[in-house]
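Trying the structure run again after the queue cleared.
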Amino acid sequence: MAPSPADATSPQFDPLGLDLLGRNLREEMDGRPRMPLGTLKPFPGAGLYALYYKGDLDVYKKLKGLDIPLYVGKASAGDSSYGDPPDMTERKLFGRIRDHRSSIKQTGNLDPSHFDVKFLTLDDIWIVLGERALLRAYSPVLWNTVMTGFGGNSPGQGRRNARSVWDSIHPGRKRAARLLCNRNYSDLEMRKLISDGIGISLMGAGEQRDKELKEFRNRTAQTIWEEAQGSGQGSKSVLVFRESVFVEENSRFGFDLRPCLRSAVSRY
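Done. Tokens:
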């Protein structure tokens, strides 16, 4: 049978296309058993992993019991400058998951027992592409996008650094103890953002979901504070744009900055 005109003009099939790869990885990840994060035993290899919430915090209640991850990550086996194959007996993937378990333990409202983890051990060639594909398949993944700060490197300890959304919702990590409040969102605004992100995660694939996701990504935030231009190492000046929010948010973390406010500039 001759192909129809529509068949003749259809896009060329790409067996390694990101959408197809994402679908295959998501099906494989969904089929993997959920392992309790708190009791996960060491294992060798590198690859991809996803964290799932099963606790009772109100902010995540709509995700409880669903195979929608809060966080997707990767750990590569590592490259050799001489082209030698990586040592797949090393526990790179387990080590990365263990670091997250340690971060969760430090908070005041999370515990490793509140989480399950799924993981896939893979060759390095698939890991970076695989992470992108999983992020696209589950988008928006809350702790990768909406609640940034969970998987990143420790920020500087100067208080002019801003507290991440993650450390604002889940305070307690030592690395964030001296940081000022988030630059852009109050607690109420963060929780609204999280709720809207979860709502999109629960939508079925299609044009409406794509539209909602695009609008969500393009939202603008109303700045609370920022570092004063030209501030050097010896200066501790910040510009405050929403004074009442700035004072209220920092008081949640034990900082009373009201005596320090001087019009639009705060010094501490």
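The helical segments are 5-8, 18-31, 92-106, 124-138, 165-169, 187-201, 207-217, 243-252. Worth checking whether this holds up in the mutant runs.
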